[in-house]
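#structure-requests
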Amino acid sequence: MKTLKIYKKLGLSSSKDVFNHFISTLKKSNTTWDYFVNWAKVFGGIKSIEVDLNILNYLIGKDNFVVEMKFLLGKYPSIVKVIPILLACRENNFEILSDFTKGKLEFEAFAFSSKDTLSNSDVVKIISFMKSSGLADLFTGKKIKNVIDYVTGIEVGLDSNGRKNRGGTTMESIVEVFLSGLCEKNKYRCLKEATAEKIKDVFGVDVPVDKSSRRYDFVVHNGQSLYLIETNFYGGGGSKLKATAGEYKALQDYLRKSGYPFIWITDGFGWKTTIRPLEEAFNHIDFVLNLTFIENGVLEHIIKENIK
């Protein structure tokens, strides 16, 4: 950890004080309104298959599922492509373990790509799939009233899987606001999601990378130095946090040899479950900040004062 004058202005006289302040000011959440559901994505997905979903409404409450489904598949073969989403699946092809009771494993392949026409064997397989997966009962048992409403619910559920990524994206967006203001005010240059190639193209310098996939969240050039910045947010604990702390310690060592200053901006209550590895990283890495530190001007102080 680098000793900074601004820490004393904040009443922090030792590295232990700085770390304790870091822990005590971690944010419980960075949830914004767009965290919950990406409605544009949900309704955009529905719009592209709305006609086929409406066709399937015909099946609701029909007693003879096989006959009625054969009729629909013959008249509207395009509906085959929406069958997987009825089971909350994005894939179109499945290998189903159909039998494992005879001393060997038997698999059956099913494909749901859109076709202009379906053969009789295609229709038989599709209906078999729908019966075995329980989809037929969904229609004949009147378990739903409208297929579009049902799939909208599925899309919302699938979209919730992206919340973890949205938390990380929100952290980047927050930091970007601070950096944009800082760079605009001081005429600094800033890159987002910067690869070594992109940094070379824009700034004409070769930045070492510890792995080929390394993409720095932000790079700021203050006219004298190039600052490499990584951000993340952990609302919950887990073994990944210890590994993350270790990764950034190693990255600091790697960049220190080349003379490029590294800033790690991280936050979230998850760190409260991994205090010791975090403290080791905090003491080892030159600049570890949370959102409160940024609010208090620490990030601006580092870059404006060209501290390396």
